[in-house]
Every structure is written in C-alpha cells, then in structure tokens.
Amino acid sequence: MNYDIKISEKEGALHVEREYHGVPLWVMRDYLIDLGGTMISEACLSGEGWSATFREGEPFTLGRLRLGTLHVDFEGDAAFLNRLLSTFDLKMLRSGG
Q1: 4, 15, 29 from 56: Cα distances, Å
Q2: Phi/psi of residue 43, each to 5°?
C-alpha cells in the first residue's frame, strides 16, 4: 500500500487526506461500497458517520513506470472513521479486496 496521510480536525469532524498510487478509482469505490458506502456522485461516497471524496492527481512516474494518482479525502466522526479506515486499509493490502 502506498499513500501519504494528512490528518486534521475541523468543527468536531476528523478529516483524513490520503494519496494512493496505482489504484483505479473504480476499485476504491467498490471497496468503500463493500464497507457500507453509498455513491452520492462519481466523486463522492457516504456511509454511516463518514464520507469520502475522490480526485485524480498527476501521475506518479518511476523510470518508465507510470502510475495513476488518486487523492481521497475522508471526513466524519472519529470513531466511525477510525473503524472504516482500519478495515479499508486491510482491503488495500491484499489483491482483490
């Protein structure tokens, strides 16, 4: 799993910003839907106590290898978000979710 993390609190909600490389948007959406999310739009999902917003970034290049970059902003109640991200991280560690 390859991602950068930024965490902040705003108005009582936890905000976690992550950057993933080499993971397609449809895979991210499928994983979060499996974890109880509902698609609000192509770029946003919402679940009980949390939401996730996606945006594509500049490709990550390593030699000839070029990987897509996906930024995901998670926001919500700290307890719900911590549970979600713990399970989500496990799905991201193994191939096929």
Answers
A1: 14, 18, 13
A2: -110, 10
Closest CA to 74 of 91, 49, 38: 49
What angle do the packed helices 78-93 and 25-34 form, to 10 degrees? Answer: 120
- CA distance linking residue 41 with residue 82, whole number of Å: 23
pLDDT over 90 percentage in the chain = 49
Question: What's the longest Cα–Cα distance across the chain?
Answer: 44
Task: Please tell me the pTM assigned to this model.
Answer: 0.82
Q: For 39-76, how does the pLDDT look when each residue is reduced to its tens digit (9 = 90+)?
A: 999 999 999 999 999 999 999 888 998 888 999 999 99
Q: Give how many domains the chain has, as a whole number.
A: 1
In which domain, by residue range, is 56 found?
Answer: 3-93
